[in-house]
Write a structure and sequence with these properties.
alpha+beta
């Protein structure tokens, strides 16, 4: 066993001395260059895998910048739209002597099948049930149905429990009842057969509910359903208030 180890040791020493000798006379120069080029190629590939090239870094930075620009543009667009809504609400209240208070939409009720929003005004702000909630230039969004100290719940006109007395714009009397629960549209019933109502007519609140002022905009007539043998005619109303675009509202406190 010892002899075998000694032979291996002698062979290794001989190989080392031979390599040193061949290197000293330049005989291994070609092999050393080949090995060096191979190691350089491997290290370069490894570096490219683990490190991004300047072009890749530039592309990443440009992508990040574009994403930041997109976020900035969206934010500015939202602010511009919110400012436009606020200006329209202000102009509406300049024309009407309603005592009101502004509010932000902070959430949506989780009750199934309900169309109810939550705003950041409550009993501490003299809010009470039944008050009208409007957006833009006097468009009725809904009414307050529940009040807590610092927040309130707004039943939208599209909610299936919503019932509002309605009239034609410029009209003097209630001509029907607008009800929600029809998806994106509203239904207006109990319209007398002798009442002339046309597609495109504007429907407003009639003041039948004393908490909701007369003349608030509800929507436009999209279709009329009239059967001669029925005592009343009906209409499909397209609401003017877009809930998805609303972020700030006004609550009418007193007329």
């Amino acid at each position: 066993m010892r002899r075998e180890k000694r032979r291996i040791f002698v062979a290794l020493c001989g190989a080392i001395f031979a390599a040193i000798f061949l290197h000293s006379i330049g005989a291994t120069r070609f092999l050393e260059r080949a090995v060096g080029r191979g190691l350089f190629f491997i290290s370069e590939k490894a570096y490219r895998i683990t490190e991004k090239s300047p072009a890749d870094t530039l592309q990443t930075e440009l992508k990040t910048a574009r994403e930041e620009d997109d976020v900035t543009a969206i934010t500015l667009n939202l602010l511009e739209r919110e400012n436009k809504d606020l200006r329209e609400q202000l102009n509406f209240f300049v024309r009407h002597s309603y005592k009101h208070i502004g509010a932000d939409i902070i959430g949506k009720s989780t009750e199934p099948f309900r169309q109810v929003l939550i705003v950041n005004r409550g009993a501490n702000d003299t809010i009470h049930e039944g008050q009208a909630v409007v957006v833009k230039n006097g468009i009725l969004l809904g009414k307050i149905i529940r009040v807590e100290e610092e927040r309130s719940f707004v039943q939208l006109v599209s909610d299936y429990q919503s019932i509002i007395g309605a009239a034609l714009v410029g009209g003097e009397h209630t001509i029907g009842i607008v009800e929600g629960g029809s998806g994106l549209s509203l239904r207006m019933g109990f319209i007398p057969q002798d009442q002339i109502i046309n597609i495109g007519d504007t429907i407003v609140t009639s003041g039948l509910d004393t908490s909701i002022p007369r003349g608030l905009l509800i929507g436009k007539v999209a279709a009329v359903e009239k059967e001669p043998y029925e005592p009343f005619q009906r209409a499909i109303i397209t609401p003017l208030a877009g809930v998805s675009s609303a972020s700030v509202v006004s609550i009418i406190l007193e007329q």
